[in-house]
Amino acid sequence: MRRSLCLLLLLPSFALGQNIASIVRGNQSLPAGSPPSSTVQVLYVVDNSVLTTYNVDPQTFQPTAVGTTTMPKAKYASIQTSPDGQFLYYFANPTYYSGHQKLYVFDTDATGVPGSTPVQAANANQLIGATINPAGTFFYSVAVGPAGPQTTNYSIVRNVISPVNGSLSQPVTEATYALDNDPSGNDCYLSVLGFNPAGTTMYDGIICSGPHGSGSETYNQRSVDLQTGALGPDEQAYTFSYYAGSGYAGVQFENNLLFTFASFFNQGPNASTVQIYQTQPLSTTPLVNCAASMLAICGDYGSARAHPSGEYVFLGGANYQTDIAQVDLTTQQLVQINTVPSNVEQLSPDGSVIYGDNPDNAEIRIAGFNATNGEVKLGGSILLPHVIDDYWIAAERY
Predict the structure, then answer these.
(1) Which residues, at least 6 apart from 21, have a Cβ–Cβ distance to it below 8 Å?
(2) Which of 136, 235, 304, 397 has minimal Cβ neighbours within 10 Å of its Cβ?
């Protein structure tokens, strides 16, 4: 699979051009600095460029549609929100990797519904991934190009976010890379994965595919200046390599912990592992190393993700059932405590809501999760009109 296809499947696709066009502010219902008194769990669903905003009840976990917004036309769309959910960044690509991608900035009301008119629009042809720091002050993205005969240039660029309406300043390049693109050798790309809770560390990854099904993944961390947004040098946190399609490692950073979900396809059944490392400071010795001998699901899972608290992992097994395991750093164990009758696709930013899929219908299943005791409370669901083309993402508004 070539890099362009990988990026569209695995990363939010967007880019900022140098000419940003400001438009009138489209939503005046909630002034900046006046958030609602409690967090609102929000789910956005985009179908044929119509965005429906749902609020999820924190007690019953039933969704309610609270508004629809006709967004700029897009064949492929993705969304990034500010940490408080006040600002919504909508990336619209009219056709498959057309090179005519646009970024639109919206402000939202207290329920998370974006205004009818964007506050800003920009060409977005070069960027392939983005993240916003926990304070909501800086927008970081990955710019790609130009491509040479053997390498492609990648950059991490930073924009300042306006606290008034979420608009972005002109980008400033923070780091540069020249990554292999040789069709007969390695083909690599760069991604930004997020931050530690304090916002003092950014995580990035360099993913490479090579001949004969080989590949490598290298994950790094950089220090972040909280005042200026400037980034320090890369410091390697984790690396994984494989040959002849023999493996894959999913990596996630949560609450100063590094989770690696490694699958080994050539080592027979029950060969997968879950490892957890500390990142502050970095350590190459796992705090937890879970294989089938510790917990059966660790050796054979189809999907995996860590809870934002770093205290749980969700491992999808057979029959679209997800096992929930608690992380015990004292005993260095994963302990299964519960299950969810769906394949967990996303968690709310605070981890209190689980969003899963239904193997029989194009449906998002919703459940509550209590991180204090690991309890699950099944809730409602949302039927997706067009499962292949629809896009959805969980957010919060406060």
Answers:
(1) 120, 121, 122
(2) 235
**Closest of 321, 365, 366 to residue 343, by C-alpha:** 321
State the first-to-last Cα distance of the chain, in angstroms, to the nearest integer.
40
Print burial letters for 175-186: b (CB count within 10 Å at least 16), e (below 16).
bebebbbeeeeb
Euclidean distance between CA atoms 140 and 224, whole angstroms: 11
Tokens of 290: 């879970």
Q: How many CB atoms lie within 10 A of CB 213?
A: 12
CB atoms within 10 A of CB 163: 13
Q: How far apart (Å, rounded) are the C-alpha atoms in residues 340 and 46?
A: 25
**pLDDT score at 97:** 55
pLDDT tens for 247-260 read 889 999 999 999 99
Give dist(CA 361, CA 372) in Å, integer.
32
Residue segments in the chain with a per-residue pLDDT below the cut of 70: 1-37, 95-99, 387-388
34 CB-near residues (< 8 Å, 6+ apart)? none
- CB burial of 102-134 (b: ≥16 within 10 Å; e: otherwise) equals bbbbbbbbbbbbbbeebbbbbbbbbbbbbbbbb
What 3-state class would DSSP assign to 68?
A: strand
Determine the Cα–Cα distance for residues 105 and 87; give it in Å rounded to an integer: 7
- pLDDT for the residue 99: 63
Chain length of the chain: 398
Rounded-to-integer distance, Cα 62 and Cα 54, Å:
10
CB within 8 Å of 387: residues ≥ 6 apart: 362
Task: State whether residue 295 is helix, strand or coil.
Answer: coil
| pLDDT at position 299 | 96
